Amino acid sequence: MSKAFAKEDDDRDDEPEPAETPAARRSSYITVEGYKKLQGELEHLWKAERPRVTAEVAAAAAQGDRSENAEYIYGKKRLREIDRRIRFLTRRLDSLTVADGIPADRGRVYFGAWITVEDEDGEEHTWRIVGPDEFDVGTGRISLESPLARALLGKRVGDNVTVSRPKGDIEYVLLNIRYEG
After folding, report:
1. Which of 71, 89, 123, 166 is deepest in the core (most CB within 10 A)?
2. Could you tell me which CATH number the domain at 27-98 has?
3. Does the reported pTM lie above 0.70?
4. Where are the domains of the chain?
């Protein structure tokens, strides 16, 4: 059916969701903190954001002509975005494995470890290896799937690690590994 003849207030998504999203190919591990953060986002969207936007859409719809009502059109679009994110978070939370234990061998780098390295210039950097749903380089959290994390996994204090990157290889020395429980 032509888009010109579709009802403006149709609740369908304009675009179908792909069969395999990038998230479907991602690692399924997440820290306890990351899981709680995603749960909090889902709860906020479901209990606060969606009801607020729904009320705004209802108020805009009460004004009459919906075809030229920007508040109504934007509100419906925002509701679709919220619903899409809610569906994603619900599916993703169901598929995640929360890694909350400390490994038996604390002398090696595993998922969830805080690691401190020294680069070639003598600068120290501290990162935590986390799942792809929770990485944030600005707060020192790198994804398990990043080249740096992959190079560090299984290493011990004192090991040298070479990481390939677009502007050239860089070498790090592993200074410290710690786990928080």
Report:
1. 89
2. 1.10.287.180
3. yes
4. 27-98, 114-178
